[in-house]
Design brief:
The complex is a heterodimer of chains A (706) and B (335).
Chain A: H1 14-20, E1 31-35, H2 45-58, E2 68-69, E3 72-73, E4 78-79, E5 82-86, H3 90-100, E6 112-115, H4 116-123, E7 154-160, E8 163-169, E9 175-182, E10 189-191, E11 198-201, E12 205-210, E13 215-221, E14 227-230, E15 236-240, E16 265-269, E17 275-279, E18 300-302, E19 308-313, E20 317-322, E21 327-328, E22 334-335, E23 340-344, E24 347-352, E25 360-366, E26 372-378, E27 381-388, E28 394-402, E29 408-417, E30 425-428, E31 433-439, E32 445-451, E33 467-475, E34 480-490, E35 494-497, E36 503-507, E37 516-521, E38 546-552, E39 558-561, E40 567-572, E41 582-587, E42 592-597, E43 601-606, H5 616-624, H6 626-672, H7 678-689, H8 693-705
Antiparallel strand pairs in A: 1-5, 1-6, 2-5, 3-4, 7-8, 7-43, 8-9, 10-11, 11-12, 12-13, 14-15, 15-16, 16-17, 18-19, 19-20, 20-21, 20-22, 23-24, 24-25, 25-26, 27-28, 28-29, 29-30, 31-32, 32-33, 33-34, 35-36, 36-37, 37-38, 39-40, 40-41, 41-42
Chain B: E1 2-6, E2 13-18, E3 24-29, E4 34-38, E5 44-48, E6 55-60, E7 66-71, E8 75-80, E9 86-91, E10 96-101, E11 107-112, E12 121-126, E13 142-144, E14 151-156, E15 162-167, E16 172-176, E17 182-186, E18 194-199, E19 205-210, E20 214-219, E21 225-230, E22 235-240, E23 246-251, H1 263-266, E24 270-274, E25 280-284, E26 291-296, E27 302-307, E28 312-316, H2 319-323
Antiparallel strand pairs in B: 1-28, 2-3, 3-4, 4-5, 6-7, 7-8, 8-9, 10-11, 11-12, 12-13, 14-15, 15-16, 16-17, 18-19, 19-20, 20-21, 22-23, 23-24, 24-25, 26-27, 27-28
The chains are: A alpha+beta (706), B mainly beta (335).
Amino acid sequence: MASTIPDDEGIDYSDIEAKYRVEAMEGLDNCIVVDGVPIIDESRKDRLLSKVEKEFTRRGCPYPSKKVVLPWDKAEGKSKGFMFIEFNTAEEAERAKAVMDKHPFDAKHRFKINILTELDEYVELDETFKEPEPEVFRPKEHLRAWLTDPAGRDQYITYRGDEVTVFWHGKGSSSEVAQERNNWTDLYVQWSPKGTLLATIHRQGVKLWGGPSFQLVQRFAHPMIKRMDFSPDENYIVTFEKIVIPDNALQGPQYLGKDNEGDYVAVWDVRTGHLKRTFPRSVLLGEDEATSKNLIWPQLKWSPDGKYVARITPGQQISVYSLPDFALVDKKSLKIEGVGKKPRESILAYWTPEIGNQPARATLISFPSRTQLRSKNLFNVSDCKLYWQDSGDFLCVKVDRHTKTKKPSSCNLEIFRMREKDIPVEVVEPKDTVTEFAWEPKGERFILISTNDPNYGTGQVGVQIRTDVSFWQLDRNRNDFRMLKSLSGKTINVIRWSPRGRHVILSTMGSSSKSDLEFWDMDFNVDDFGKKEPTERKEEWGSAMHLLANTEHYGVTDIEWDPSGRYVASSVSVWRHSVENGFVIWDFKGQEQQRHLIDRFKQFAWRPRPATLLTKEQQKQIRKNLKEYSRVFEEKDAAMESNVSAELIQARKRAINEWNAWRARIRQELAQTSKGRKNAKRRDEEQEETVELIDELIEETVTALE
Amino acid sequence: MRPILLQGHERSLTQIKYNVDGDLIFSCSKDHRINVWYSHNGERLGTYDGHNGTIWTVDVDSESRFLVSGSADNMMKLWEVKTGKCLFTWEFPTAIKRVAFSDDDSLIACITEQRMGHQGAVRVFPVNRNGTGTEQTQEPLSMFHPIESKATVLTFGTTSDQIITGHESGKITLYKTKTGDEVVSNKRAHREVVTDIQMSPDRSYFITSSKDKSAKLFEAKTLDELKSYVTETPLNSAAIAPKRPYILLGGGQEAMNVTTTSLRQGKFETRFWHKVFEEEVGRVKGHFGPINTIAVHPAGTSYASGGEDGFIRVHHFDDSYFRARPYGDLEPEED
């Protein structure tokens, strides 16, 4: 003990003692206390110690095994439930604390870790309660503020060169800039499915932005990320790229750690920014994870109710994980030698190929009960594709068949009618190979594109494939799907339904000579938009269809409907087409609203909207009183239009006035310096001569006199 | 609009000029030949033969007496317009890319190419207008070397004591004719090479075109940018239309890429833009190669465009062109 009391001889040694005092705690920074270790008896001591050491080593925090102390309660003959570990350095101890704190050792035990020196602080902690200072509330911007726009406008984002711009889409050709930033993203931009957040992809990872001024909401570090996606409910994001952890990587729940190394797919919680789980990548059958060039996207499929997420290991199994803890449901994967799958309302659809004598089979099972709802055997199958209708009423399985000699020959569609008893399956057999299939959103119609062109599938570049387009609808009276109409000898290869159904765009993309856009209305003689009731169709079957417009957008690479289904944007991205980049916005009738030719244009995306909060009744009410509502809006539109044109006229007037003023100034200056410009003068005069002959002649005599 | 197709060149056009009266069109081409045409009917009057290389440039004086031409055979020639006789020849170490008469006809300026160790240079020669015109001097009145980036185009400024040059880097510079001193420079005029420069009728402002797909209007005295016209294709030429508030732009896909792109993509059209509002008002199709040069009749009644395809198209404006008021009453005062 250091003492400041003068001793017998009255000499004060305190200064010397202070100088040579030994720091008692020195050198204990590298020791940690691990709490939450299972209490065990003598016989399991060695096993425990080795298990703990293994656990630490696995997470990248090895320590010399000799330097462990497990305190023992001699009276009870059991351990005390904590232990001391000494690391080589204080840094290693810090790191162990960061990594291993709250580490689940087993089902019942979770480590709690403290540095030994810190314990003193806790011991000396003031026991009296002090009310913590309330944190100052910092208001955050409302993430859905854009929905409160008084004019109800939609937003869209464009990416060109290094510039990312968010626009308000006004009526006609007026678009207002909402936000503009240079180098906002390194790769591309993406809206979340309900439009709440904007994701930008950077070399270091993903950043999410939101609110009226697009402030940073969250970021996720996934170096060299290639792709990302949101879960449908916007609670999670998925990022994709091989995970490589450098030695000095940052630690914490929001960072990828050593144990994630080698995986590809990472799932993150959007709100907390924490890493939820990582997965290896799914690759096509027979490909190696490390060398595969084909990126299967999406890697994970989410159930619409947000309870499950499924991951496939082709040829082996489907693993279904429950949210939000990402634990494997019932701790086992579905062992299926299958390929395709898709969860929906907790019904999982998948198909398995033919193996030996066993036929191929499409199966529907409900989850989590794992009861099989329906299955169908299929023969001579070369490939299957599953298409859910978006409200889950139908599932179409497109089956590509081959002959005995494995040549692809025909194609048929097995349509599962989910809403009916026992899920009846209907078969539609188009003659030719089906290249494209699309359900009408929330509807009972679909469009398929088929071809019998001999060039199809040969992979020749620049060959125009002839296609046929057919429209089908469920006939309530006959209770089967009937063809509405078919168009033959087309080059159409893309179908884009309006998100509200009814309208559809058929287009030819990726061709050097054709870039058609056909705007179709499926219910041309029905006034009431959105009515889905089985109205008695007096008209002839298929007569309601009408081609509204047939236009062209040269080199079109992308077509996107706005969330309301009123406008559609076709764009030419420099990523896929070298010239005439830019975008055009059309209305659903195929009338051009605005056209922008922009050098190095890359991406166009409408901001999605969340589902409506109005009930069915309210919607019906609005539809009923549409005329009244629309009158108000029409007035507003008219006012705005005149406003816009007034503004434009003002701007032009200003331009003219500026120009005239400038000309007047210049003319004056010229008059002053006209000496030595005899010829120019003469030229001017000659030109004006025709107009004001007399004036000029007089002026000329004056100059001659001078 | 009634187009007249002038088929007298075997290779691509390099420059077209109207004379001051507007009755003649002078054109030069890579086929080593200068042609002169009647502008009203497209009849060819004659040729000026003597060059032995691509002729890059021509200019004619205000009296239509002398014609000057610059060629890749390193020669600049002075011709008698009336007879087609070569009056005088200047010889240089490298090709002549641009020539220009001053507005008082007393001077000729020319740009020589930077090549084979020779610096690019701007030379100004006095013109002896007395006698037959054959007695000219080989000694330049002044000569200077633009620094940093080579000059590609030039014209005399508001007065003949100023020369404005456009450069490869996209800058434009105003020089004193006599001394070659830089008066003022606009380094950020364009982002790429300046391809053409043409003065307004009163020489108070001028237009430039550039491969950076834009054309711009500048004040001649200060080189301040007045207007900017941004298109989606590289531009080779730009001209100011008198009488109406329009400017004409021509260009298209680079000549070397033409064979690999379709006509649809090429954009071989003459574009009309509103001079003040900076908006495109119309296009005229016709050429099947990039447009290399555009010239407008000094009275604004017709224009001629010359293309990489070897054709000159002369368009006489209809009445409707003069009558049409696409912007209503909003018209700038006439120059």
